[in-house]
Amino acid sequence: MAEPTLRDVALLAGVSPRTVSNVVNGYAQVSPQTRAKVEKALEQLDYRPNVLARNLANGRSGQVAVVVPYLDTPYFAELLQAIIPRVRARGFNVLVDQTDGDRAHEAELIRRKARGFLYDGMILSPLGLSQADLAGRDPDLPLVILGERSSDGAFDHVGIDDVAASCEAVTHLLSLGRRRIAAVGDQPYATGEAAQRRTAGYRLAHERAGLPVDESLIVQTPRFNRVDGATAMARLLDRPDPPDAVFGYSDLVALGAIRVLLERGLRVPEDVAVVGYDDIEDGRYSTPSVSTISPDKSTIAEAAVDRLLRRIESRGPVTGEEFVVPWTLVARESTVGRGAP
Amino acid sequence: MAEPTLRDVALLAGVSPRTVSNVVNGYAQVSPQTRAKVEKALEQLDYRPNVLARNLANGRSGQVAVVVPYLDTPYFAELLQAIIPRVRARGFNVLVDQTDGDRAHEAELIRRKARGFLYDGMILSPLGLSQADLAGRDPDLPLVILGERSSDGAFDHVGIDDVAASCEAVTHLLSLGRRRIAAVGDQPYATGEAAQRRTAGYRLAHERAGLPVDESLIVQTPRFNRVDGATAMARLLDRPDPPDAVFGYSDLVALGAIRVLLERGLRVPEDVAVVGYDDIEDGRYSTPSVSTISPDKSTIAEAAVDRLLRRIESRGPVTGEEFVVPWTLVARESTVGRGAP
Questions:
Q1: pLDDT digits (tens, 9 = 90+) for A200-255
Q2: What's the CA gap between A181 and A291, in Å, rounded?
Q3: Which residue segments constitute the domains of chain B, with CATH numbers given?
Q4: Edge to edge, what strands does the sheet with A245-248 contain?
Q5: Which residues of B touch A287 (CB under 8 A)?
Q6: Of A48, A53, A77, which is closest to B77 when you measure between CB atoms?
Q7: B338: burial class by Cβ within 10 Å (0-12, 13-18, 19+)?
Q8: How far apart are CA B64 and CA B53, in angstroms?
Q9: Which sequence ranges form a coiled-coil region, renumbered to this chain (chains A, B) (predicted)?
Q10: How far does the CA of residue B338 sit from the closest CA of chain A (Å)?
């Protein structure tokens, strides 16, 4: 059966195709009688309006792209779960993609020719993207950047103050009397601004406490995954002077580190205290539960969607906006033991 | 700046709009000299082809919808991570949605009028959808169903044999000498075929071993989440005759149960052995690591994408196909203790 067209509906209803189009698009200038006739014909032929074609005629796709580095990383999965229903509630469909944190892929996504009218705007959580890449983006693409960087007002950005949050996490470990705190998750400058901001917070906490940083305790890892935390922890424990605490750059890193500590017969937090970052659900149910920095994910989602849709709907130029979201330190068993709330 | 059109490019290149269209669409009948002129004009004007409009002219959107109950459930997040790059590699963009496992929402998605040409096909992992809902689906919608149900050849379905897998998980617990095995995650008939197939496997294992089923050990939970496992476990431990093993209907249920067991000072597996389902990464790094049924997720993704694209590309009617994917039982610390591989 061929798909019925507007013309088929018009023929059956005995009206012009333009009248059918007016009914389908909800325009007012149709008499109730004509409307009823057309609606009956639409029903009878099981006509489906071509939403995309209609949007495109208005210069829109009605679609928003949401792009994260990895869909199966719990933090990003939780973020998507918070973002997608909010975009859908605003009447847009959601295209999803993942970049593997690849800088070239991220940069390509925000270049002018990439989008080909597929989406009206994009929420992007980049890992590798540089400020230079961002400067070269399509100026006509409504874009909201999530995550660890500062925008200086050059683009729309939603995130928490990672340096302050990391400083607080490490200060928490220092306040428990720990003095050999490993920082697990650092990355070379070219790779990750996220990592460097956490390392900056680690340094700041030591500086504020008037304590020196042992550079050998700052450990680089390829990513922020469980396997990265486990591998780094194993190496740290093989040293003659192992750490008495770990600041993991994500909860996954912390969970990987905890797995290795327990395997080696060490107690968490008595022998080694561990704090993570992200407040994913895993860390709330693991034993020990994981102390962490908890960004306010629903506020991040709300702010990002709001900002993007305001930009899509505005016609003129809009200045970039920096939206800083609150966070809290949640102290659980992995730092304060069973007495934890 | 207004978006340049094909006509602008044609004017600048001194050719007809049809010639520009031939170049943009890669058709052969253009001389190298003309092609070069057009390409220069395209570059100069920074022309972007309207991919969607082009697809729509061919009766396609070039988009595929992938719909799961919850984006932030690790099993579905891992499945998406496996599916999306495979769909993208086949040249389609991916629309993602989540249904909260709501039957009405799932049924609406596969009805004729719902899609309005937004996508050329759908991969759907339903929770509540009934066989009757499936029978009433849009017959023209290329659709692949994932998860726990049988298709009887009426539609395309990719999944593992959940009854057999559940039976094996429970047989594993029986083989370790456990005789009071709780089944955590059952659901009333109307809600979840997934749950019922696991309960059927639980019963089958007892039957094969010639052992009676204690009906009071089959516990219903609202969903398959950590909180469900934790709540159910707490109630089971408050009984005068607590279980000596737990079959959790997901790894999340198992992880929630383990959290409560350890909190109460019980040893896993010595006092209570626990097996889960799904083989998500969490269970590999938790302490104890979680024994589980491991479905072959890349084969599921591969089969689903392959089947969907074959159906999109075929013109005539195609018979429904049942694709049964392999699984394995992975015995880890939560059942066999530290000696586990």
A1: 999 999 999 999 999 999 999 999 999 999 999 999 999 999 999 999 999 999 99
A2: 15
A3: 6-49 (1.10.260.40), 63-160+296-326 (3.40.50.2300), 162-295+329-339 (3.40.50.2300)
A4: A218-220, A181-186, A245-248, A273-275
A5: 258-259, 262-263, 286-287
A6: A77
A7: exposed
A8: 16
A9: none
A10: 9
